[in-house]
Amino acid sequence: MSINYMQYLSIIGECIRSRDLKLGRLLHSRFIKTSFIFDTILSNRLIELYAKCGSIKCAHNVFDELPLKNDRSWNILVSGYCRNALFDRAYQLLAQCPQPNIVSYTAVLSGLSQRCNHEASLCFFKRMQRMYKYKYNGLFLDEYTIVTVLSSSTVLRAVQLLRQLHGVVVVLGLEFHTVICNALIDSYGKLGYPDLSYRLFTRMVDRDVVSWSSMVSAFIKASRMEDASRVFHQMPLKNTVSWTTLITGFTKEGQGMEALSLFGEMQKDGVPPNAFTYVAALGACSGLALIEKGKQFHGRLIRSNNKDSLLNLYTCNALINMYCKCGDLRSASVLFDSMLEKDTISWNSLINGFAQNGHYKESLALFQRMIAVRLRPNNVTVLGVLSACCHTGLLDESMQILDLMGKQGLKPELQHYAIIIDLLGRKNRLEEALELIEKAPGPGGSNHVGMWGALLGACRVHGNAELAKKAADMLFMLEPSNSARYVMLSNIYSAGNQWDDSREVRRVMDEKGLRKEAGFSWIEVKDRRHEFVAKDKSHCCQEEIYEVIHWLLNQMCEVENSSCKEIDLEDQLLD
Predict the structure, then answer these.
(1) Residues 6 or more apart in contact with residue 364 via CB below 8 angstroms
(2) Which of 266, 269, 212 is nearest to 236 (CA)?
(3) C-alpha–C-alpha distance, residues 77 and 90, integer Å
(4) Using a CB cutoff of 8 Å and minimum separation of 24, what contacts does 563-569 make?
(5) Which of these, 106, 145, 223, 255, could form a disulfide with 250 (CB 3.0-4.6 Å)?
(6) Distance in angstroms (rounded) separating the CA atoms of residues 186 and 194
(7) Most confident range, picked from 62-66, 202-206, 246-250, 562-566
(8) What is the rounded CA–CA span in Å between residue 358 and residue 387?
């Protein structure tokens, strides 16, 4: 069967989309036999196929054999080298190009930026401008160049360059270009200038869903959730990304109930959640310890028609974290063992989950499994393992783990030293702990809140008021508004019968207007979290709660067959 020219174009286009290198090689052979290999358009598509499939050498061979090369031939090969991170070859090709255009240079810029070589990307951009200014006394860029450079400037927090680019955009008359405006809104938002983002946003003539989502993200970055919600609810069209952006923002800001409520609204609007939406919702469940809600999400993921794409590595990690935060380590372990693919976060979530829930032996055993499968731990892994060692009193093992960090190319951070100090404090080796704090590495090493807090806690356990005073003074300087530090020092003095010192600490608290934060407990009933504070009478079911407590007291008295002491429940409810 004969195939005409247009059919060849269609077939090779499908090969590029599906990355079908095998069929592409067959087409290449066919082109040679039929002399289509000398056709510039078909050969350009063949170069593109090889480049996108990673066969850059074959791409260059086709390019070399092409008798009539056009600008697109050069641009495709330059882009191919950048796609494969062969930037030196891309530079050489640019130098050989008879008439390199903006597409060629932008391909290099984009390739450097996508490979996180942002400094090199900006240097190349400046070189472009110097070269063009020398030849033509003008600027050498287009909208795609600007967007790429804006992205690199944002990552490097180059605010001055960002403002200069903004000025260039205005001068060139591109200030209302939708794609460029979206990039500027995103850049200003990420660098902490949401008001500038909003000023740009309000002046835009044509806003698309990216414009709205970028503005929502800018406010979220600045922790201005009310503004983010206001802009979100004004959106004419919301997609999965925009819903997920706001849900994630509420979760990161610790407003889990708002995040879950928004997820419910998303479902009512018929917008399908993606894997990142579920990750954010599960994060909200973790923060609120709503295990039943988290299990519902797990079940929904399993029953989903898109199970393969939704129940992926990220959602599984979020589920493990949720189960660990809610104390259901059995479910977390079963899910972990069933995962076909695990990354460092998977191991860290379960290792830290075991440690935080008091299963220290299991945490250490899992760490040994991680080392056995030759997976490199990171600083978060070591934090969990050190915590397990601390609570089991394994000081020597803790020091060995610190040594292991060096062998793994990891540098111990101050959080790791804080755990060692906590362990020394538990063993009443307070002077050694103080010495370690004073020798802590890095800038501000001896001013780390966690280390001094661990020392103060150890002083409370062992009744060392003198050292407690030194630790507390440092904490008062580092955390002047943290009332818990004052309360702990006052209690240490009280335990040692140093009543005058205890009263003095309380007096200072009163002068500074510091109050001890009320502790509270909560339970989850029918997907709703109920919080209870000591002596709080604001709960909607207060009368029913009192009635049940009275009934329970009567039952207890009957079972014990003894008189119950009269309890003033109005004063002591949940105290």
Answers:
(1) 385, 388, 389, 392, 397
(2) 212
(3) 8
(4) none
(5) 255
(6) 9
(7) 246-250
(8) 10
pLDDT in tens, 45-59: 999 999 999 999 999
The helix (run of H) or strand (run of E) holding residue 530 is strand 528-533
Stretch 270-284: mean pLDDT, rounded? 96
Query: Beta partners for 521?
Result: 532
Per the listing, tokens 């095998």 go with 22
Q: Dihedral (C-alpha) 488, 494, 499, 504: value to the nearest 10 degrees?
A: 0
Nearest Cα residue to 176 out of 145, 151, 211, 215: 211
| Amino acid residing at 180 | I
The whole-model pTM stands at: 0.77
Structure tokens of 15? 């090969």
Which one has a higher pLDDT value, 2 or 168?
A: 168
The token duo for 77 is 């090969």
**Cβ distance 419 to 379 under 8 Å?**
no
Which pLDDT tens digit goes with each residue over 405-450?
Answer: 888 888 888 888 899 999 999 899 999 999 888 888 766 667 888 8
Between CA 180 and CA 188, with CA 182 as vertex, the angle to 5 degrees is 100
Inter-residue contact 102 to 140 (CB < 8 Å): yes
Burial of 98 (0-12, 13-18, 19+ CB in 10 A): exposed
Give tens-digit pLDDT for 8-61.
889 999 999 999 999 989 989 988 888 888 899 999 999 999 999 999 999 999
d(CA 422, CA 544): 44
